[in-house]
Design brief:
16-stranded antiparallel barrel; globular; 16 strands; mainly beta
């Protein structure tokens, strides 16, 4: 999921209403097959402060793609592409409450990517796998981009730098309003995800963070798996700054996930990369990432991404990216050029 897809969990005392609008447009080019696509994304976020520590949290998106997916892998190359064009998808509509500095609770329509996968390095890359682990999106019909599900989310801050998160969602996510606001475990199943994170400030722009998490799902199966299927897994994420050179900060990205119960679908994933921020006066950011997925149904896949983001103003940036894909015995090279506009006070 992209960096901008993260609703603020608190509102400054002087800001009763916080808002954000982000528009993205990109061109995708499969250099191997010649396929092209034009992909567009629009997001609006709105948070309204209520009584002390409480706020209404809302977010909606619109997506449009002309030309379809330029390649057929499950890993994908664009984290804003959707198979179905829709002018409106509600991805968050919840009530959040903070209790001092140690507890935050939220109930309503929510999105897993927003709640758990918005760290600086994972959000920087254009590949969906960097911020939406394949063991989740490929094994569970749950609230990953672009869908949402009704549920509850809790965050506990027992001491400085340490965060414990846990969420429970309706086991099946939807993208249409007439089906989103339902919590029916008896037919849709149940999904839960949680994590423990320790974050340590550094000299540079990004902190060091270390996360270990779990996933649990009891969701409707298909075919031989008809009825409810229980699937469990573990995941981890490390973002570690390791070098400060002149004004730049170099960060190591390590992430991985594995299913702990047998699945006929995606059973493992790992990713590794390096990002560099603070490049030259424009504060540019560059990165290299490798993603590897292990899948019993459609075969293993590999993606190597090189990308560079150039801020042109405080609200406009451009980001080219190059992907080297291997799916089974097929190799593909895909180029991508993205422009982003972000406005608001979030």
């Amino acid at each position: 999921m992209p960096l901008f897809l993260s609703a603020a969990l608190c509102v400054c005392a002087q800001e009763r209403v916080s808002w954000g609008i982000t528009a993205m447009t990109e061109g995708d080019w499969n250099m191997t097959d010649g396929e092209t696509a034009w992909v567009n994304y629009l997001e609006a976020d709105l948070n309204i402060a209520l009584w002390k520590g409480a706020q209404l949290e809302g977010a909606a998106i619109a997506t449009y793609a002309a030309g379809g997916a330029v390649e057929g892998s499950r890993l994908g190359v664009s984290n804003i592409y959707t198979d179905v064009n829709r002018p409106f998808r509600l991805i968050q509509a919840s009530l959040g409450q903070r209790f001092g500095e140690w507890l935050y609770c939220s109930v309503g329509l929510r999105n897993i990517d927003t709640d758990f996968f918005t760290t600086p390095s994972t959000s920087f890359f254009t590949a969906p796998a960097d911020a939406d682990f394949p063991i989740i999106s490929n094994n569970y019909p749950v609230a990953t981009f672009p869908m949402a599900a009704l549920g509850g989310h809790v965050e506990v801050y027992p001491f400085k730098g340490f965060t414990v998160k846990a969420s429970v969602y309706n086991g099946t996510a939807y993208e249409k309003l007439d089906r989103q606001f339902r919590f029916v475990p008896s037919t849709d199943g149940l999904f839960s995800i949680g994590s423990m994170t320790y974050e340590r400030p550094t000299k540079g722009e990004h902190s060091a963070s270390y996360t270990l998490g779990y996933v649990y799902g009891k969701t409707p199966g298909e075919g031989q798996d008809a009825g409810f299927v229980r699937k469990t897994g573990l995941w981890g994420l490390v973002e570690q700054p390791f070098l400060h050179w002149r004004k730049t900060q170099w960060c190591l990205l390590l992430q991985g996930a594995a299913m702990t119960r047998h699945t006929s679908d995606t059973y493992g994933y790992w990713g590794a990369g390096v990002t560099v921020n603070g490049i030259m006066r424009r504060e540019m950011m560059a990165g290299l990432a490798v993603n590897r997925m292990y899948d019993r149904a459609e075969g293993n896949e590999l993606d190597v991404e090189v990308t560079w983001m150039v801020p042109l103003t405080g609200w406009l940036s451009v980001q080219p990216a190059l992907h080297f894909m291997r799916s089974g015995h097929r190799e593909t090279v895909v180029g991508l050029l993205r422009a982003s506009v972000s406005l608001g006070n979030l």
